[in-house]
Design a protein that fits this description.
The chain is of the alpha+beta class. The protein has seven helices and 13 strands. The longest helix has 30 residues.
């Protein structure tokens, strides 16, 4: 496999030397490692601006047609106006989402790039890993420590949210079928047939959505820290790993440019950020270099800044550095790395 050079020398522009703010000085003194402040990269944010521009470009000929009075037919003018309004709405929503994501992605404190420089910066890309567009886990205190576990009922809420929009689409289809007569729906029996078929398809889609989300939830990881035994345990479907807390080295936010291939070989590209637990192998092979082990606790392909509060609290609870390997510079390196990786045959995003 083609190996790219370590990107850490190129991260100097994200460093702030020396540390100036009182909060940074306090954290350095308390933790014992240097900290810096930087942002997460948002590689998907540019697509919102692209969608806005494309929608505006589509609107231009529609506005020209309406303003030039080329179309005199009133129903056609109404249809063109409605179509233009639709593209305007999409442009506004996409543009607003882009601005919102940039505003909600402030700099945050994390370990300096010189801390644990030999921890791999490539994504783990566990076999069959799913990326979620919503936050899936919550951090809560227990009698003997703390637990990072899936949010109860989040799967059901997400599934019902999607089901609601599918039902809205069904209502629109039924309104069209039983609205003003159009070519394919002038016959009442034909309208009844289309309505029944639409309802059946909708029910099948809702059932499929709930089945898929329930199945996806079964593969989520749970991290349990027990202060009495001083261990961290990672529980996943048909797998459990127990790690001495003294071996835990860091919490890592890692950029992942995922390329998944279906059975037909069609590749889907999407962006995700892995929240990884990093620990030192307690029984490494004979080698001068440190052997690092990692496990993905959360895999998020929604706005990456949503992971920052959880990652920060988790690192504070474990008293280990938070490694930000998802800066804009890391995303540039990940784009190059992903071009040399074969497409994943399992996993996906929801």
């Amino acid at each position: 496999m083609h190996c790219l050079p370590d990107p850490s020398p190129n991260l100097q522009k994200f460093r702030e030397l020396p540390i100036q703010t009182p909060s940074q000085r306090a954290m350095t003194a308390r933790r014992g490692w240097p900290v810096v402040e930087s942002r997460l990269g948002l590689p998907f944010a540019v697509w919102g601006a692209v969608y806005s521009i494309l929608c505006i470009l589509v609107m231009i000929p529609l506005v020209v047609l309406l303003q030039a009075d080329i179309v005199d037919d009133i129903p056609t003018r109404i249809s063109l106006t409605a179509l233009g309004g639709f593209f305007l709405l999409i442009a506004l929503l996409a543009g607003s989402a882009t601005i919102w994501n940039w505003m909600k992605n402030p700099p945050f404190l994390h370990a300096d790039p010189s801390v644990l420089p030999d921890v791999p910066r490539e994504p783990l890309l566990s076999s069959g890993q799913l990326s979620f567009s919503i936050i899936t886990h919550q951090l809560e205190l227990t009698a003997t420590g703390f637990r990072l576990s899936p949010i109860p009922g989040f799967i059901r809420r997400a599934a019902w949210f999607l089901s609601f929009w599918i039902t809205v689409m069904l209502a629109i289809v039924i309104t069209i079928i039983w609205g003003p007569p159009i070519e394919f729906s002038t016959s009442v029996p034909l309208r009844i047939g289309f309505t029944g078929f639409s309802v059946l398809v909708t029910l099948m889609m809702i059932g499929l959505i709930h089945w898929m989300w329930d199945r996806a939830a079964s593969g989520l990881a749970t991290l349990i820290f027990d202060a009495t035994s001083n261990t961290c345990r990672i529980d996943r479907e048909q797998e459990s790993i127990t790690i001495p807390a003294s071996d835990v080295a860091a919490i890592q936010l890692c950029a992942a440019r995922r390329r998944t291939a279906d059975r037909d070989g069609e590749v889907t590209l999407y962006f995700a950020v892995e929240l990884n637990l990093v620990w030192q192998d307690s029984d490494p092979p004979t080698s001068a270099a440190t052997t690092w082990e990692r496990a993905t606790l959360m895999n998020h392909n929604g706005p990456a800044y949503q992971l920052v509060p959880i990652a920060t609290k988790l690192a504070d609870q474990l008293q280990v550095p938070l490694l930000n390997h998802a800066t804009p510079e890391h995303w540039k390196w990940e784009r190059q790395r992903s071009k040399t990786r074969p497409a994943e045959t399992g996993g996906g995003h929801m």
